[in-house]
Amino acid sequence: IFSLIERFYKPTSGKITIGNENIDNIDLTNWRHQIGLVGQNSAVMPGTIRENLVYGLDHEVNDDELWRVLKMAYADK
Question: Which whole number is the average pLDDT over 62-67?
């Protein structure tokens, strides 16, 4: 399912929508920047918790931004 949502391949029938928008009509790069996956067997890389949280981002994240996102995910405790 995740591969379909990520648009690695197209569905053989039907369509995937967000609201009324077909995901095929959304810019692929922008679409993929908005998606994240946390698997059940996710490995933690060596380094700090902060380094693990911001891994893969293409910009610097200040503490206020990081805490805001952690609160949104109910992960600030």
Answer: 95
